[in-house]
Design brief:
This protein has 635 residues and is α/β, with parallel strands linked by helices. Helices cover 49% and strands 18% of the residues. The protein contains 19 helices and 18 strands. It has a 6-stranded antiparallel sheet. A 5-stranded mixed sheet has the order 8-10-11-13-12, covered by helices on one side. Helix 5 (162-237) packs across helix 11. The longest helix has 76 residues, at 162-237. It is elongated. The relative contact order is 0.06.
Length: 635
Amino acid sequence: MSQTVAELESQLHKQEKLQHLVSLLLNRFLTTSSADFASRVNESLAELGDYFQADRVYVFDYDFKQNVCHNTFEWCAAGISAEIDHLQNVPLDALPDWLNTHIRGETMYIPSVQALSIDSGIRQILEPQQVQSLLAVPMMRGDSCHGFVGFDSVLTERTYSSYERQVLGDFSNALLGAVERHRIEEQREVIYQELIEAKQLAEQANVAKSEFLSNMSHEIRTPLNAILGFAHLIKREVTTSKIERRIDDILQSGEHLLTLINEILDMAKIESGSVQVVKRAIRLHDLMEELHRTFGVMAHQKGIDLSFEIQDGVPPHVVSDETKVKQVLMNLIQNALKFTDVGRITVSLDESDHALRFSVADTGRGISKQELGMLFEPFYQKKYTDQPQGTGLGLPISKHYALMLGGDIHVESEIKRGSRFTFTLPIEPGPHIEYLQTQAAEWTTVSFSNIHTLVVDDTPAHREILSDLLVPSGCTIRLASTGTEAIERWQSENFDLILLDLRLPDMGGIDVLKQFKRHIDCPPILIISANAFEDDRRMALEAGADEFIPKPYHPHQLFDAIRRHTRTSRRKEPQVIAQLLAAVQEGDVTTIDFLSTKCKQDVPHIKTILEAVDRFDYETAIRLLHLELTGVDDE
């Protein structure tokens, strides 16, 4: 009896030890990283082999699609040969009894290989490996078998109790879960790395695309600037109406080409997600007047009555992206002019439900119901044989910009009765803004008072155009074709104005700009460049440029910019304060934020000025800034 109790106690002790070992191994799997998983499995097989005094412990996976199995993990005791390399892609047809046993969820237990019949397929596989006893526990998930954990005894036969077989069954099922989790993590890591690589490739492609578009934009705008520039100069000098008409045709064709270029580039930027919204105060009356000036001649030539109306209650200004708002309206008006042969076009602006409504109504050919649903699709073109077809991108770009700005575009139309496009824009009131008044003179009659100007451009034709525009207007000119030459001229002469290109043969225009801006008496610098992307404009303004004018430009743009920035250029005023005053007067929130960080705290009133800006009391800020610059208080 005492012997029986001792045997039971020993058996219970072994069971507790085995249970503790298996629990330890399973907890280890739960806390093992993906990188350490394989080594932890091998360690666990070694500990099980040591506990059971087995000579070889291994894991097999069943691949029922390929009808084979694979040895995936293996531990061998000292002096026992490894078999893992020889047990890959083993046909399942060679082990029918073995496989059927596992499919039923049962353990394959062979206490003595020698006891098997001489023609047993299993014996014929195990004897060459010198296996004397074997235990192969299936790895089950529900009713599905996915592989097994095997124990080989090579040096001597080994028996396994029913309890040991049961615990090993639990272990093998848990190991299956750990293996599958590890594989999922591996697959997830592979997918993650593939996504990173795909993202990097996409970003590289995006950068390459942006560089290509930037280069193409520059290469196209550069000769187009010469074409339009010389056309404007020739028109100023012509004496016959016939030649003037031909020059007008050149200008209109050039402007049409520029529109096509801009639309293609804008759509490319939209597709790449690189379009940014830059908000500033928009003077709505000035916007409508500018549009009227832009399209009035074209409407008159077609015999179309073009009128602009602003209803009562419309605020004087709103905060939005002026460039995009203007482009949307220009696209809508251009389309109205293109498809209106007789009658009138009315551009109206009113306010409803805290939103602006720009309406462009025409008495043109109208749009069929079938076509209305396709108008905003990229590259869709409403085909008329007597009209230039364009790119078919104007309306899709306009729709995208309207949505970006928080609004939308809607259209109503009937065949032969005209169309009405309505562009809604949310009202974001701007601060009280004090505007500087300018004379809207014809550019051919503009006169300046001896503004000594440095023109820096590497293209001879562009230097000639600027010279021929500015000299008759009262400017004296010095020319430079490189950054080095520009700096040398700057060091030897005093200039009232600098016109600077961004692409120069020896150094970047931004670098030249920064060298100029190091001097406290630096005059206004206007960037005139065929690098016309928003990033180019932003970099130039952040580097200290007073204005950015993209090529090709109209003489009006150039003269208006010169007039704005040379009004106070002869006063010896702190540059940052002058730029901040201009930004506050224009309601340019982005530039205000940027310049506020550059103001020196020891400037008198600067704290009060910045506090006024922060609370949108621009009237006080403008008065104090004016006092800083002139020493005269307007009050």
